[in-house]
# Entry
Amino acid sequence: WGAPSAAAAHPPAGDVTIVASGGDALGTTWTVNAGVLVTTAASASVDAATVVGYLASGALTIEANTIRVAASLTSATASDLTLKALRNVTVDPGVAIETAGGDVIVWADSDADRAGGIRVGDDFAGVFTTAIRTNGGDIVLSGGSDPVDGFASYDSALGEAFSVYQYAVGVFGALLDASASADPGGNIVIRGNAGDTFNGVIWTVQIGGQYGANTTVKTNGEGSITILADASEAPANPVANNSRNPWAAVIVGTVETESGDISLIGASNVARSNARGLVIGAPVQSGSGTIRVEDRTANTDDGNYTGPFINGAQFGKGTLPASSSDIVFSHN
# Structure
């Protein structure tokens, strides 16, 4: 996948919400030019049907301060959809985004000031129909000045999971599905960073939260899945009870590809106690691709480092009929 230009066509002025109906008219609180929709007021609402209509003509980028998808979007074309926010991008519980082969790029913290993350679903809603489906297009949850090598970042406005844990990217009770019916599936990339100024305890990238049994990240064919969580700059917290559990990647939902590679990479910081680069408690499965599990935490001889925590996970075959995958575990 290729990211759209990092330079905004117009500076986003405010927040935008995608709604089922009753949205603002073109030219009132938002405008669109050359495939880029931007806000012109402090807040704007845009009908889902309007967004789908633009996708019928080609790729669409929505740029705003924050983006909330509160209504489902179903595109019958292979046009790419990019949701690009200076701060957070959220997809409401029960909402589905679907393309017919187009990429879906969820791009937070686009000004790279390390404040802006992503939430798909909600860790307290108990709703399990939230989805992003691309039918062969790529799915990217990332951020920074360029989501190819940047990160979505922790932002307290995203809320918490398990009542206490902050995060940069959270996928809760939701499906991310890049599978294709005929051609190889798309690739899935998830990149989150804990930042360096947060308070509280943090699990940087959360796949599942309380709803791991209802959360799946999947593709088919040779489609690959990469999850990269970086908490390496998470500082010690002055509140002792909060200076703990800097777990970079917490994966309790299923990660699955038919024959592609899977890379799960986490880096914690031993400035806090019980530092772990990876926590995995669900099937990580591929029929033949290489599965890489890598803890990049530095200074692992420090007493605060407690190593990856793997409990209830299945690597390789999992629930698939069979697997010949190589499985590689490594650490810094």
